[in-house]
């Protein structure tokens, strides 16, 4: 199933002649006879390749060939394109229907209507920023993320130019190696980058942090999050089913952007300054607790929501992070019992646990990646943590009235990254 | 009907060209490596392929190295070691 991605990536990197051996999908979950059959498939294909291989410069050089993707190089000027279509202007009938049809036909949008990215609109989005400046190359097709291409996608999404520095900062954050954007883009998991906007700029741009902040209804949230998705589709090349291999995808892949609700946070902001955090997360898992009147009760419900055999969190221990988005009413009750943000982190770390006997039932049991001390546990009743430390539980407040919060588990060895939002230098 | 000119949103292709050398005509006496992507059963698959290659193709040695995890690239030292010791390397992909 990943064959198409592999071939597209080879083309994108200009690699020719690398033999591919393909076997039946899936390999995981197969019993011994299925593995034996696939081994034979691989050997038969290899035998054929050995007898028919042509071209190349000799196998001894294979060892010296660097097949790694180009490193992300921020700040360099983009090379001349070898893909004329990438810079072409196209001409279409000037009707909303025709523009949408043209972009859908080319697989240039998410299926929803767009604002036509005319040169004038893109210039306005750039607001004097140099369009040729590159933030690096974006996986999985390793295309150059120039400011112009980001601006084209931001116009299409319906963003206002004032939001462009935020979008640029978010892309910079996603290109940090610790975010592992390649994994986020290509995995079968439904992960999407959640943007969390901190600081005064959130209200200046109209990024909503109150009732229904995850959507719908708020232009800044909708369009900034959508711009990020269009950039991931068009610049990174993560087209669903071909290069984004998410089994089912997720509504969060359309748009996923909120702000902290600082005015309702008993613990202040996670970041006081203008900062954007990108968090590679699942869609929000609801925490419904209309009954508890204590911190212990609410956080017990939060902790229970945070543990599941079906989550990546916990299985790949070193990468695991949890984002807790507390509704204001839950946050107030928790703080009313004297708990700090650190106390909430500690509580969730200590209580979001499953017994070993439950972990053995399914999920990723058998291919999990745990530290030695967890592998050494043999007591089936032992409660094992989901994340390495309390610091791997992020806590913010967002939302409006009501007794709901949410848990957002991360995925794909993607760690949260925060970047300052600054004016773009000319 | 009036027309409108719009810009393509597609990223600029990064330049570069790498030509991969051809496979050797025979694996007899060669060393074959595997980069284990840590997906379920890849270790068993690599072991079976290695056993067949040894029995039927005269492969001298089989080396299997595991990535740190499935979602990130193999460490440079793994690649360097396989490049030094192997004639042909299988890199496991997908699941």
Give Rg of chain B in angstroms: 20 Å
Spatial arrangement of strands, main beta sheet of chain A: 6-5-7-14
Mean pLDDT of chain A: 91
Number of DSSP strands of chain B? 6
Kindly summarize this structure in a few lines:
The complex is a heterodimer of chains A (426) and B (95). In chain A, the strands form four sheets. A four-stranded mixed β-sheet of chain A has the order 6-5-7-14. Chain A has a four-stranded mixed β-sheet with strand order 8-13-9-12. Chain A has helices spanning 3-12, 32-52, 96-105, 119-126, 147-157, 164-174, 181-186, 201-205, 219-234, 295-305, 328-336, 341-351, 356-359, 372-375; strands spanning 15-16, 89-93, 134-138, 143-146, 192-198, 257-259, 275-281, 285-288, 322-326, 353-355, 383-385, 393-397, 404-409, 417-420.
Task: Please tell me about this protein's structure.
The complex is a heterodimer of chains A (426) and B (95). In chain A, strand 3 (134-138) and strand 4 (143-146) form a beta hairpin. Chain A is α+β, with helices and mostly antiparallel strands. Chain A is flat. Chain A is built from 14 helices and 14 strands. Chain A has helices spanning 3-12, 32-52, 96-105, 119-126, 147-157, 164-174, 181-186, 201-205, 219-234, 295-305, 328-336, 341-351, 356-359, 372-375, and strands at 15-16, 89-93, 134-138, 143-146, 192-198, 257-259, 275-281, 285-288, 322-326, 353-355, 383-385, 393-397, 404-409, 417-420. Chain B has helices at 42-57, 76-85, and strands at 3-7, 12-13, 18-19, 31-36, 61-66, 88-91. Chain B is elongated and about 70 Å long. Chain B has 95 residues and is α/β, with parallel strands linked by helices. Chains A and B meet through helix 1, strand 1, helix 2, strand 2 and strand 4 of A and strand 1, strand 2, strand 3, helix 1 and helix 2 of B. Strand 4 of chain A pairs antiparallel with strand 2 (12-13) of chain B, so a sheet runs across the interface.
């Amino acid at each position: 199933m990943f064959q198409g991605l592999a071939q597209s990536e080879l083309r994108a990197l200009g690699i020719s002649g690398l033999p591919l051996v393909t076997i039946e999908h899936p390999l995981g979950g197969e019993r011994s006879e299925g593995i034996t059959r696939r081994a034979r498939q691989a050997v038969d294909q290899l035998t054929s390749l050995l007898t028919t291989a042509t071209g190349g410069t000799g196998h001894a050089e294979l060892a010296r060939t660097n097949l790694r993707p180009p490193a992300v190089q921020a700040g360099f000027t983009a090379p001349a394109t070898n893909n004329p279509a990438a810079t072409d202007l196209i001409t279409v009938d000037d009707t909303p229907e025709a523009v949408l049809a043209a972009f859908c036909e080319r697989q240039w949008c998410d299926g929803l209507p767009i604002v036509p990215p005319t040169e004038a609109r893109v210039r306005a989005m750039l607001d004097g920023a140099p369009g040729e400046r590159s933030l690096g190359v974006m996986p999985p097709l390793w295309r150059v993320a120039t400011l112009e291409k980001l601006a084209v996608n931001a116009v299409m999404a319906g963003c206002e130019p004032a939001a462009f520095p935020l979008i640029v900062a978010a892309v910079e954050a996603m290109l940090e190696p610790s975010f592992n954007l390649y994994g986020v883009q290509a995995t079968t998991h439904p992960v999407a980058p959640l943007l969390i906007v901190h600081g005064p700029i959130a209200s200046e741009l109209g990024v909503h942090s109150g009732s229904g902040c995850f959507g719908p209804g708020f232009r800044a949230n909708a369009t900034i999050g959508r711009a990020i998705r269009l950039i991931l589709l068009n610049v990174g090349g993560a087209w669903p089913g071909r290069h984004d291999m998410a089994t089912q995808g997720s509504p969060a892949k359309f748009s996923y952007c909120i702000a902290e609700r600082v005015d309702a946070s008993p613990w202040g902001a996670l970041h006081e300054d203008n900062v954007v955090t990108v968090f590679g997360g699942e869609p929000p898992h609801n925490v419904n607790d209309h009954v508890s009147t204590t911190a212990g009760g609410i956080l017990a419900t939060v902790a229970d929501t945070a543990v599941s055999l079906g989550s990546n969190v916990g299985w790949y221990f070193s990468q695991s992070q949890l984002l807790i988005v507390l509704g204001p009413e839950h946050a107030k009750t928790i703080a009313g019992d004297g708990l700090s943000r650190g106390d909430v982190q500690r509580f969730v770390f200590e209580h979001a646990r499953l017994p070993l006997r439950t972990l053995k039932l399914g999920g990723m049991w058998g291919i999990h990646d745990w530290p030695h001390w967890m592998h050494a546990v043999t007591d089936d009743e032992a409660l094992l943590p989901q994340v390495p430390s309390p610091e791997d539980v992020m806590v913010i407040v967002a939302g409006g009235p009501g007794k709901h919060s949410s848990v957002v588990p991360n995925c794909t060895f993607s760690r949260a990254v925060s970047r300052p939002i600054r004016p773009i230098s000319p | 009907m009036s027309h409108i000119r719009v810009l393509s949103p597609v990223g600029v292709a990064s330049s570069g060209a790498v030509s991969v050398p051809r496979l050797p005509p025979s694996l007899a006496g060669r060393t074959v490596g595997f980069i284990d992507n840590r997906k379920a059963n890849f270790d068993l698959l690599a072991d079976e392929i290695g056993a067949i290659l040894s029995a039927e193709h005269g492969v001298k040695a089989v080396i299997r190295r595991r990535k740190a995890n499935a979602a990130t690239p193999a460490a440079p030292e793994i690649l360097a070691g396989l490049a030094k010791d192997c004639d042909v390397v299988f890199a496991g992909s997908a699941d």
